Amino acid sequence: MALRDGWSSPSTVDDTFFDQEGEETPLLQKHSEQHTVSPQCCSVRYNLAFMMFLGFAVVYGLRVNLSVAMVAMVNTTGIQPVFNDSESKECPASSTTSNNSNENLDQPDGIPRYPWNPQTQGMLLGAFFFGYIFTQVPGGYLSGLCGGSRFLGGGVLGTAILTILTPLAAQLGINWLFALRALEGFGEGVTFPAMMAMWACWAPPLERARLMTISGAGGNFGAFVAFPLTGFICHSMGWPAVFYCCGGAGCLWAVLWFFMVSDEPRTHPRITDREKEYIINSIGSEGGSHGWSVPLLPLVHSGPLWAIIITQMCANWSYYTLLTSLPTYMDTILHFDLRQNSFLSALPYLGGWLFSLLSGVCADKLLEKEILSVTSVRKIFTSAGMLIPAGLLVAVGFSGCSGILAVTFLTLSSTFGGISSAGVFINQIDIAPQYSGFLQGITNTFGTIPGILAPVITGQLTKDHTLMGWRKVFYVSAGVNVFGALYYTLFGSGKIQAWALKENKETVSTP
């Protein structure tokens, strides 16, 4: 690798190299006398990753609690079935999976139940994303301008407080619950862009994948913990306790977050000089905050950015379908009881969590050893994390009434889906480090559209509670995954874009 031709390195030694495809990739120069790599263990940057991991675990707990609690909240005896007896018995409940018994679904005395049909349930499950979509871009812009810690912490805290009010909103009516869930999404919408903006200041280039997948893996871990824990609380204490516990956990985390975290290494009171110098020097001048200006017109015409947008929309379709509707599938088709339902719904996210962590380590190693370019790494991990799960989702459709096969294929699908965490989902910081929070807001805005549409379409396709309806759900998800993987393979890039370089800031426009 050679130094980029004509590059004038600033005093912070922002070395840029040609990768194997001739791309300009700002990576830390190995063996440089001016860069002494700071230890990873117990470092402030890895402590930050762990705090983010816990934060996103809470975030996803707040997001999915309604998916499991819905099974206990709905009084199915008050719903008139729209399918005939033969259809309702496609998958007869066994003696060990009889979730329609009063023993399994009865709630403690005084706990209300609601006669919500599948369409209403789909609408309520998608309500979160109606709010979530509106704060992505403003959250990303303001995080890049003012620092991300207050927005990430404030978003979780606001959502946690609203979650505690969920039982009251449900009693007041569907419209109140819909509005409250939308407000929760409004609060959570700033969290991922804020995370990206913070890593633009904290993540050395050769540790990006590891740090960002550690923090982002909290989402899968949160879903893994939230599903069985929610089922247990529903069964033993009643569904309202789910929202009180999840909301309380979010408030506790926010207090710790505001006490322990700073926006950038320069302002952290407990960071060592060695680690501070390592982070600042390795990131160089292209990281940090972007100030008031953003290059709006170049963003609109950026092919690599549109590749991220379209691919994340496709990947999120299957992810949000499972996140919001998997407990309903376990309930209405496979007939698992509430505790089995919540545990088995959690299994896919355990594998996704583990593989996302492994993918981050592998991606960084490939770059560190100069085996592949940034673009090649992102494309390989994205394709593997979307094409393999697509095939497994098709297999779920063919599993019929076999609960063992269905759970196995769903678990493997989400497990291999975790590989894409080191691909397209961190690509924003590759193509525009200083604008990565703003780009995360843009890509998450588009990526939220499947969260709105998927539960509603799933409700329509499965309104008769038939295997064929759910088979269509899995086929659609698989097809969307395949399209996203192909599009990113053709148009994705890991090259830092010309409009993202600070030397070109005179060409930007202000919003």
Explain what this protein looks like in three dimensions.
There is one protein chain. This protein has 511 residues and is an all-alpha fold. It contains 21 helices and 2 strands. It has a two-stranded antiparallel ribbon with strand order 1-2. The radius of gyration is 23 Å and the shape is globular. InterPro entries: MFS, MFS_dom, MFS_Na/Anion_cotransporter, MFS_trans_sf.
Topology, element by element:
Blueprint: E1 17-18, E2 24-25, H1 44-73, H2 85-88, H3 102-105, H4 118-132, H5 136-146, H6 149-164, H7 166-172, H8 174-188, H9 191-202, H10 208-216, H11 218-237, H12 239-260, H13 273-283, H14 296-300, H15 303-332, H16 338-368, H17 374-397, H18 403-417, H19 428-431, H20 436-461, H21 467-491
Antiparallel strand pairs: 1-2
Helix pairs in contact: 1-6, 1-10, 1-11, 1-12, 1-15, 4-8, 4-20, 5-9, 5-20, 6-8, 6-9, 6-12, 7-8, 9-20, 10-16, 11-12, 11-16, 15-16, 15-20, 15-21, 16-17, 16-18, 17-18, 17-21
Identify the strand order in the major beta sheet.
Answer: 1-2
Class by helix and strand content?
mainly alpha
Element pattern in H and E: EEHHHHHHHHHHHHHHHHHHHHH
Query: Which range best describes the helical content: under 10%, 10-25%, 25-40%, 40-55%, 55-70% or over 70%?
Result: 55-70%
Q: Characterize the overall form.
A: globular
Radius of gyration: 23 Å
As a percent range, the share of strand residues is under 5%
- Please mark out the parts with pLDDT under 50 across 5 or more consecutive residues, or reply none: 1-34, 78-88, 95-104, 506-511
Largest sheet: 2 strands, antiparallel
N- to C-terminal distance: 38 Å
